[in-house]
Recover the amino acids of this structure.
């Protein structure tokens, strides 16, 4: 992380509620130095950066006790300061009072603050292990839900806060699904659906229906997850119909791609190419328009960095189901364009499936071994589910191959993550 700037040090001082004299005392420096930071004349010397980091952790524990401290080490300092400011009554970068404790009335600015917190946490989705991020997002959801239950607000504000709760509940559900806590994921998706319907937020309703379809996949054993994709297709078609009318392009892009994958897995692949074309068109529009709203889903935090690489993986996964030999080049191209680790792991699994269909055991084992290592490093049970789902596709006669035996030792001999259906 870059060194501390004068502006950041001054923001931290305000978050701690200290005057220059008190801040200087905490850092064991002269008051005049802090005043020079405040006036922008100079910035903190490198020798003070560690002390400032420690004070930032202190501020997080004081102002955002729901934030997982382990998460701080994985976040950009500016994001941490913004998150803490949105959690307090200190004006900072346009963030006003979160809520008035005496009157328990909600302002529009406070609602923006909740959305900002969701977006800041969402920006960590592709960089942090899900189990580390889960505690922080759950705490944020509880805070928003508590305000919804107790605070006085106008109907339009209530709808907006219901949308924030729905958005955060989807976030918690996704993280729970990643970590194998499927019952917890189901409960939070139910909450998200309820809040989205109460708020008449069809964009978030489309997203939660799509996540429920993904949950259906992970609730099956790896060997049977694709046996009957029809229930998922029904949910995704309902989700897609809503998304086409109400959701931002990048949400449409993801839902259409998932629909293409499940249609391809259904047998004859009817409608898969059509869904792929919807996904391509949505990506083109989303790339042109950029993020349109705040929050986890609509700001593309969930789908951050997907782009052309994710579209190529959608195409590759459809090809695996319909014509595996044609899938290899497409999936390899998607991997070259993929930057987030869990996305790479999923791409490797699809590549392994294509290689299995093309009778190339050594390369398939290499792909699954790498995907497994990524899943373990991110504590992602969802990734491991995909890996085991590909492993069961290998013919039984491959069990005598050394590469398969080494893979099985890795899958069975290493530390296992909790998943009741894995």
């Amino acid at each position: 992380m870059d060194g501390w700037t004068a502006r950041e040090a001054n923001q931290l001082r305000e978050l701690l509620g200290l005057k220059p004299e008190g801040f200087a005392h905490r850092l064991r420096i002269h008051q005049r130095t802090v005043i020079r930071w405040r006036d922008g004349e100079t910035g903190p010397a490198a020798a003070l950066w560690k002390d400032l980091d420690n004070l930032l952790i202190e501020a997080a524990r004081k102002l955002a006790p729901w934030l997982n401290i382990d998460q701080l080490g994985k976040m950009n300092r500016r994001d941490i300061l913004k998150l803490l400011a949105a959690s307090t009554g200190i004006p900072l970068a346009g963030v006003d009072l979160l809520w008035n404790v005496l009157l328990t009335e909600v302002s529009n600015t406070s609602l923006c603050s909740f959305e900002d917190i969701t977006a800041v946490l969402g920006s960590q989705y592709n960089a942090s292990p899900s189990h580390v991020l889960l505690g922080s997002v759950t705490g944020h959801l509880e805070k928003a839900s508590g305000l919804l239950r107790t605070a006085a607000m106008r109907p339009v504000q209530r709808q907006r806060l219901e949308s924030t709760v729905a958005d955060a509940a989807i976030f918690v559900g996704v993280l729970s699904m990643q970590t194998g806590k499927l019952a917890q994921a189901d409960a939070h998706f139910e909450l998200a659906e309820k809040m989205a319907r109460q708020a008449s937020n069809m964009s978030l309703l489309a997203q939660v229906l799509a996540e429920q379809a993904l949950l259906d996949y992970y609730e099956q054993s790896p060997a049977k997850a694709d046996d009957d994709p029809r229930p998922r297709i029904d949910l995704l078609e309902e989700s897609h119909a809503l998304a086409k009318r109400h959701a931002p392009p990048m949400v449409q892009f993801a839902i259409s791609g998932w629909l293409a994958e499940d249609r391809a897995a259904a047998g004859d692949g009817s409608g898969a190419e059509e869904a792929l074309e919807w996904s391509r068109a949505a990506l083109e529009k989303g790339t042109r328009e950029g993020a349109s709203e705040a929050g986890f889903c609509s700001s593309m935090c969930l789908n951050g960095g997907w782009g052309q690489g994710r579209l190529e993986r959608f195409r590759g996964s459809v090809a695996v189901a319909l014509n595996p030999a044609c899938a290899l080049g497409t999936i390899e191209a998607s991997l070259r364009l993929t930057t987030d680790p869990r996305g790479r792991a999923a791409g490797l699994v699809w590549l392994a499936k294509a290689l299995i269909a093309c009778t190339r055991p050594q390369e398939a084992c290499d792909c699954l071994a790498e995907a497994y290592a990524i899943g373990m490093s991110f504590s992602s049970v969802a990734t491991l589910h995909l890996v085991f789902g590909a492993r069961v596709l290998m013919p039984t006669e491959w069990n005598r191959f050394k590469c398969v035996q080494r893979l099985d030792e890795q899958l069975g001999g290493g530390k296992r993550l909790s998943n009741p259906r894995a």
